Amino acid sequence: MARVMNFGAGPGTLPLAALERAQEDLLDFDGTGMGICEHSHRGKAYSALHAEIKALLTSLLGLDESWEVLLLQGGASAQFAQIPMNFLGPEARADYVLTGTWGEHALAEARRMVGGRARVAGTSGTGPGAVAHLGAGYTRVVRPEEVTVDPGASYVHCTSNETVHGVQFGHVPGRWFDAGAVPVVCDVSSDFLAAPTDLSPFSLVYAGAQKNLGPSGLVVVLVRKDFLARAVTHLPNIFSYAVQAKNDSLYNTPATLSVYLARNVLSWVGDLGGLPAMEARNHGKATTLYAAIDRAAEFYRAPVEKTSRSVMNAVFRLPTEALENAFVAAAEKEGMFGLKGHRSVGGIRVSMYNAVEPAWISALAAFMDDFARKAG
Ligand code: PMP
To answer: Which DSSP letter does residue 219 get?
Structure first.
């Protein structure tokens, strides 16, 4: 078996230990004589797994009784729709803080439902406007003074790490902007579980699994019970957080294989020392990678302001697109994959999710030094 170094932005690489554990369980889960995907979601074996993954999330994140942990489907994009569906009644308004493309998508989806009642509370985009011009010039997070939250809004939505632009808020969410008493909703898809995070400023966070948590097909939603109590009730059951909460996320068949693999990933995180260990690991990788960029700053141009640089996704350009293509091709020859930037912005993107090995980043940094020397 020859596994490559996978720097893909999502689905991303998964910890080898989590995959190896799955090999046997795919055929015979815990000695039950059936593979994990073949078990009923109402049966004893899956029920124990379902409880275990919720317990792992609760303990890794230090969640107390005020939180509801939901295991849903449809990816983070379904949440772009489900949040306004659940929290915007006929007159209600919502605010959106934009620091990249994914926040724009969330806003666009809300606007499809409520039009101008979904408003931009602040943006760090320099382009002519959100949504119509996807990915317009985001090179930093917003500064607190650039955000004005409508005190009457039902929630304010933000994105902790913008995967396409490589723009990340720091891990002290209380300092991002002043939301007053308005509930803060955050898309944490691409930096979930990357470091210990104070969840106290949030009323709801959600993460598509396919970066730091497992395969796609699962989205974790953490919602405070007091916020959930404000949700509208006239919804199709399948889209109602309250219905899913009441049914322990088993209103319908969950993505059992994705839940299973995420369990393996979470226990790997625990084995390595939990979120403080992830933070140290990720900080080390990001330091190595950004140092390689900065050593050849004339050749590798990193557009993101240093204080907004993402620990998860580093983006940079080379002098020409032809050189970028040559970079990607030469890297693949060295066993390094997934380095092409998002199709909307081009360039190079290095995703350094939890499961990316520090040794891969060191190898990539050495490759970058070499490439710049030869081509620059
Ligand atoms: N939000 C963020 C921050 C993302 O990175 C992505 C996917 N790259 C999404 C939302 C959309 O996720 P999905 O494809 O699971 O709907």
So the answer is: E
